[in-house]
Amino acid sequence: xxxxxxxxxxxxxxxxxxxxxxxxxxxxxxxxxxxxxxxxxxxxxxxxxxxxxxxxxxxxxxxxxxxxxxxxxxxxxxxxxxxxxxxxxxxxxxxxxxxxxxxxxxxxxxxxxxxxxxxxxxxxxxxxxxxxxxxxxxxxxxxxxxxxxxxxxxxxxxxxxxxxxxxxxxxxxxxxx
Length: 177
Hints:
Layout lengths: L5 H14 L5 H10 L10 H18 L4 H15 L4 E3 L7 E3 L7 H20 L4 E3 L8 E3 L12 H16 L6
Antiparallel strand pairs: 1-2, 3-4
C-alpha cells in the first residue's frame, strides 16, 4: 500500500514556514526546494504574499479552540484554495494524486498543499494534532506526527527545559529558568 504523504509533509512545511516566515521570493523558493517541492516557474512577490495569506489562515487553524472550529477554518481554506484532486504521472514516477492543477504559481500551489494537507492530517490523525509549544515563552507551531498523538512541545529541548523548570519548582529550588 502506498500512503499519501500530503498530510504530514504539507503540515510540516506549513509549520516550518509559519515559524520562520520567508523574507523574500528567493528564500521561499529555496525552502520549498529543500522540502522536496519541484518548482515549475519563477517565484514572485505575489507568491510570497499568497503564502503569507495561507500561513495567516493556517495559524488560525492551529490556534482554534476545538475540532469543530478547526474544521470550519480548514473548510474555508479549502474553499479559498479551490484545490481539485487529479491523477498525475509527471516525470514518470508513478501515478499519484495531486490536489491542484499543473503549472500553478507557487503561492497558489502552497495554499492548496497546506489546505489539503492539513485536512488530511487532521482527519487521518486527529483534530488535536496541531499546536503551539507548551512552554509559555515559546510560541513555536508544530504538527503532531507522533505515534501517540500527545505531543506538547515543539522540540525535545523545550520539553527538557520545562521538565527541569517543573522539577526545580517542586523542590523549591531557586530560579525556575
